[in-house]
Amino acid sequence: MAAMGQWGWVRRGCAALMLLTACSAGPGPPPEEPEAAPTPSPAAAPTPPPGATPSSPPAGPITLTVVGDLMLGRRVAAVHDDPTDTLRHLRPLLRRSDITVGNLESTLSTAGPPTQDDYFSAPPSVLRGLAGAGFDVLSLGNNHVGDHGPDALVETLRAFEGSGIRPVGAGRDLRTALRPAVVERGGVRVGFLAFNAIGETPRAAPGTPGALSVRMPPRTGPLHHGDLGRVLRAVRRLDRRVDVVVVLPHWGEQYTHTPWPVQSLVGRGLVDAGADLVVGGHPHWVQGVERHRGMRIYHSLGNAVFDMDFMEQTLEGVVLTATIRDARVRRVDLTPYRMDATFTPRPLRGAEGRAVLADMGVVR
C-alpha cells in the first residue's frame, strides 16, 4: 500500500486511540474482561503480612534478553537431531541473562490438518532444549500457533505444563489468552503480554481457543479500537502489579525494514498505558527503534531461527539485552547475528554487525 494509504489508517486509528486513552467524560469504556491471574514465577516473593512495613523497591540490576521469531520445524528439524542446537552460539548470552524471552512461531502439535498453505510445527520436545538454553517465557501470540487447528493449539498449551517455560499471548479462551506471564528475579517482577495482529491463528474468544488479537493494518483491516482497548486495559492492570511491563506484538509487513506508521501509533498507546518496553515480531527483517516518553519500541528483531534462506535479510537479526534497575529499563544492548547454512545464528562483529544495526537505524 502506498505511504498515503498507510497514513490514512493512522488518521482513522488515531481518533480511536484518543478515545481509548485520553477521554474522561462521557460513557465509560466497555466492561473489563474477567481478570485472569498471571502465570506466576516459582520464585515469587510472599505477600507481607498485614501491618508489615513495605520494603523499598528493588534496585536490581537484572538483565532481560529478547530474541525474535523461533521456527524449529521444517528444514531446521531436518538438519538437526535437536532443532534447539541451532542456538548453541547464542546459548551463553541467553543463559547469562536473568530472564530470556522469544516468539515461538509454530504449533507443537499436529492434532489436526493444516489450516493454511504455509504451516509450521515443531515437536514438543523442543521445550526441553529451549529451557536448557535459558528461555523463561515464549510468546504464542502469533499467526502460526493455530496452524493445525484448535485441538493442536490446546495440546501446544498443555505441552508447556512442567516445562519451566511460561507461554503468553494465546489460551484455551479469551480469559487465558489475556493472562500475563510474570517472572521475578532478584526481587524485580517483570510482566509480559503478547498479541497477534496478523490473523490466521483464530482470535481467542469466550469458550474458543486462540491468540489474543488486535485487528490493524496491514493484514487484518483498520485499527479496531475494541481489540486495542482490551489490550490497553490488560497493560494497565499488569502495570499495577509488577515493576516492569513488556509487550510483545506480532505485527507489521514482511520483508521490509520500514514499519507501518500504525505500529508507532499502537506502540505509543501501549507505552501510555504502562508498557516499559515494546518488542515486535513477524516482519522477518529487522526494523527500527523509536522512543516514546523515554520508553523504547522495537518494531522487529528479525528471525532468531528460521529456514528462510531465500534472501540475506531473513537470515539476520539481533538479540536484545535490557538492563533493568530501580524498576526502569536503563540500558539496551543489541547483538547482531547471521544464520549459517544450517540455520544456526552466529554473532557478527565489525562491519557486518554494524550493517545489521544500521538497518534498525542504530549507528555504532
Distance N to C terminus:
32 Å
CATH fold category name: Purple Acid Phosphatase, chain A, domain 2
Q: Would you state the CATH class?
A: Alpha Beta
* Average pLDDT metric: 88
- How many helices does DSSP assign? 9
Largest sheet composition: 8 strands, mixed
Specify the overall morphology. Answer: globular
Radius of gyration: 19 Å
Number of domains: 1
In short:
This protein is an alpha/beta fold. 25% of the residues lie in helices and 23% in strands.
Attribute tags:
364 residues; alpha/beta; Purple Acid Phosphatase, chain A, domain 2; 8-stranded mixed sheet; 9 helices; disordered N terminus; signal; Metallo-depent_PP-like
Layout: helices, strands, pairs:
Layout: H1 3-21, E1 62-70, H2 74-79, H3 91-96, E2 99-104, H4 126-132, E3 137-139, H5 149-159, E4 166-168, E5 170-171, H6 174-177, E6 181-185, E7 188-196, E8 210-211, H7 225-239, E9 244-250, H8 261-273, E10 277-279, E11 289-292, E12 295-298, E13 303-305, E14 316-325, E15 328-339, E16 345-347, H9 350-358
Parallel strand pairs: 1-2, 1-13, 2-3, 3-4, 7-9, 9-10, 10-12
Antiparallel strand pairs: 1-14, 5-8, 6-7, 11-12, 14-15, 15-16
Helix pairs in contact: 1-7, 1-8, 7-8
